[in-house]
Design a protein that fits this description.
The chain is about 35% helix and about 25% strand. By secondary structure, the protein is of the alpha/beta class.
Length: about 375
């Protein structure tokens, strides 16, 4: 079954919603306008129940099918938040908010799920209940976890949950997915190296924290090259190197390093954390300095359930003609928290030849809307067929 005719008809309307959201981006949990727009539209669609304030600013809508002999409840999730980036697209509907833009396509995800919700509310051609989930703070805030911590799964009786993300570089409206570990766990670290500052003309009287920190940066790369099994995945990136002095002639007392660790299994995640700490402290001690490590666990590994992934792929193939195998992704995704609570699957939909996500020239491709809406609608209708 290809893209649904009704959703193709709705494309101009859904595109208008998407571009309005694009013009008015909101960051992390501050999705007050977006959440209000979502709730207003769900009410207009005739959803049976609408609940706001889950996970601070999350919105949930409940749509009941024509019958409920199956007793099944399926959750569909879209993220709503934008990024703290200055938009450089030059679009006539570019962000009106200085320093904020929808650089990851969450405006498209929200619009597509709204489109599916409108269709499902009109047709009700399924046996069971669908719960549409609009989540804030995916971009580093852990909004998915907060919605789960608020008891969302239990409150609405959700049994399975499905999510979607656009993917630049893939043909528009095509799909890709993989079972098992898919998106990486994303942790952060901050390492403070304390030496003994002094005059740059007398380095022998100092313990040069800059040199010590430089050795730590290099040594951290041995986690991937010499500590982790080569067939496993780990990425250790030092992304900030900040000295306590900016003067040309001062050897600084302290240096602060910041970075991320990305892994695809819990065992490697634990090993990487242990090695970051041991390497930083040991290298500093060897050179007469001290290191203190603050290691912050972020999103867990996002793991697609086997059965639900196979089903999601078959639905995608019915919409687009095929569904290909997706690569492993070392980026993080807080849909992982929902998949820890319920079986489900997360799929990629092609965004065409656009700038990469998180780039100031990125834009969601509206041509992907019918395929994305149709996939969500078909998840419901095929998983809970009308009796």
């Amino acid at each position: 079954m290809p893209v649904k005719n009704r959703l193709a008809e709705l494309l101009p309307e859904i595109t208008q919603w998407r571009r309005d959201l694009h013009e008015n981006p909101e960051i992390l949990f501050e999705t007050h306008r977006t959440s209000a727009v979502v709730a207003e539209k769900l009410k207009a669609f005739g959803c049976d129940e609408i609940v706001t304030g889950i996970g601070r600013t999350g919105v949930v809508g409940v749509i009941k099918g024509k019958s409920n002999s199956s007793g099944k409840v399926i959750g569909l999730r879209a993220d709503m938040d934008a990024l703290p980036i200055q938009e450089q697209t030059g679009l006539d509907y570019a962000s009106k908010i200085d320093g904020a833009m929808h650089a990851c396509g969450h405006d498209g995800h929200t619009a597509m799920l709204l489109g599916a919700a409108k269709y499902l509310s009109e047709t009700r051609n399924f046996d069971g209940t669908v719960v549409v989930i609009f989540q804030p703070a995916e971009e580093g805030g852990g909004g998915g976890k907060e919605m789960c911590d608020d008891g969302m799964m239990e409150k609405f009786g959700i049994q399975e949950v499905y999510g979607m993300h656009n993917w630049p570089g893939r043909p528009v409206g095509s799909f890709a997915i993989r079972p098992g570990a898919f998106f990486a766990a994303t942790d952060q670290f901050e390492i403070e190296i304390e030496g003994k500052g002094g005059h740059a003309a007398k380095p022998h009287e100092t313990i040069d924290s800059t040199v010590v920190a430089s050795h730590v940066v290099i040594a951290l790369q041995t986690i991937a090259s010499r500590n982790v099994d080569p067939v496993e995945q780990v990425v250790v990136s030092v992304t900030s190197f900040e000295t306590s002095s900016k003067a040309f002639n001062v050897i600084p007392q302290t240096v602060t390093l910041r970075g991320t660790v990305r892994t695809l299994s819990n065992d490697v995640r634990d090993l990487a954390q242990d090695r970051v700490t041991a390497i930083a402290e040991g290298t500093a001690s060897m050179m007469g300095a001290k290191a203190s490590v603050n290691y912050i666990r972020g999103y867990p590994v996002m793991v697609n359930s086997e059965e639900q992934t196979e089903f999601a792929a078959s639905v995608a193939a019915s919409v687009a003609g095929e569904c290909t195998d997706a690569p492993l992704v070392m980026g993080g995704e807080d849909f992982a928290y929902m998949l820890e609570e319920r079986p489900g699957a997360y799929i990629l939909v092609g965004n065409g030849d656009t700038a990469a996500v998180h780039h100031p020239e990125y834009n969601f491709n509206d041509e992907a809307i019918p395929a994305g809406c149709s996939w969500w609608a078909e998840i419901v209708e095929q998983r809970m067929p009308a009796s």
